[in-house]
Design a protein that fits this description.
Blueprint lengths: L4 H9 L5 E3 H4 L10 E6 L3 H14 L3 E6 L2 H10 L6 E5 L9 H9 L5 E5 L4 H9 L4 E4 L4 H12 L14 H12 L3 H11 L4 H8 L3 H15 L4 H10 L9
Parallel strand pairs: 1-3, 2-3, 2-4, 4-5, 5-6
Length: about 250
């Protein structure tokens, strides 16, 4: 499997022409006519990069503001709430756990749509998010094109959530656990670094192995987890909290 260049760009630069950091948005001018502005609140660079690139391809007019914690989300929205079209908010990131961030956003900015972006997929969590006022619930396990479609639906005024019959079941979790059990200790270490958005070269340097060795391990990890990309592997890892503080 090749490098996830989008993740690398996010990890090293923090943003691209299609995305801005929360600090940069504070001094940004007014949104251009016809431009859609989306704030992504998520502390994992792999998710930020993948979403930014997917949205950039699906909606060329989009402006993305990337925020790694709740404080930066609140700052970004507070600067110009009338210019924010949607906030995508992780359930658990620095500054918030569970629905606290959603409640805070809706209390301070009731006219700004907020959709939950999470690796949690149980029906009860989805129902509660919608009941508490979320404009949508987007599982991180969705493909990037499907995420973009869901976001477009929310921007058009719909309330979007996956069919509850399609969310992950206990059997799915058990299967994921069996797949993780097949990973070697070295592969688990590499997986946690993938979650952090690190490139193969960075992983090789930290583990003191060749980059080719890392590539072989990454290919094996993807095969064992039955996924096709580093982003998907990181999302599955988050469902089982591999390595502690990973994707939620």
């Amino acid at each position: 499997m090749g490098e996830d260049s989008a993740a690398g760009a996010s990890a090293t630069a923090g943003h691209t022409a299609a995305g801005q950091t929360a600090a940069e948005q504070a001094t940004a001018g007014q949104t251009a006519a016809g431009q859609t502005t989306i704030v992504i609140g998520d502390d994992h660079p792999l998710v930020q990069a993948a979403l930014r690139d997917a949205l950039g391809r699906a909606m060329p007019e989009v402006r993305v503001i990337e925020c790694p914690d709740l404080d930066s989300v609140m700052t970004a929205v507070g600067q110009r709430p009338d210019g924010i079209d949607l906030v995508l908010l992780d359930l658990n990131m620095p500054g918030t756990h569970g629905f606290a961030g959603l409640f805070l956003m809706l209390a301070h900015h009731p006219t700004v749509p907020v959709a939950i972006l999470s690796a949690l997929q149980d029906p009860d969590t989805i129902r509660r998010a919608l009941a508490y006022g979320a404009s949508g619930y987007i599982p991180k396990s969705l493909s990037m094109p499907a995420m973009a479609d869901a976001i477009r639906a929310i921007l058009s005024g719909e309330t979007w959530a996956p069919p509850l019959s399609a969310v992950s079941s206990e059997a799915d979790e058990a299967d994921a656990a069996r797949r993780f059990a097949s990973l070697s200790p070295q592969q688990l270490r590499i997986l946690t670094m993938i979650v952090d958005g690190k490139l193969n070269k960075q992983i090789a340097g930290e583990l003191n192995v060749s980059e080719q060795t890392v590539k072989v391990h990454v290919s094996s990890i993807l095969r064992k987890l039955n996924v096709v990309s580093r982003t998907q592997a990181a999302v599955v890892a988050g469902r089982l909290a591999v390595g502690g503080d990973v994707l939620r």
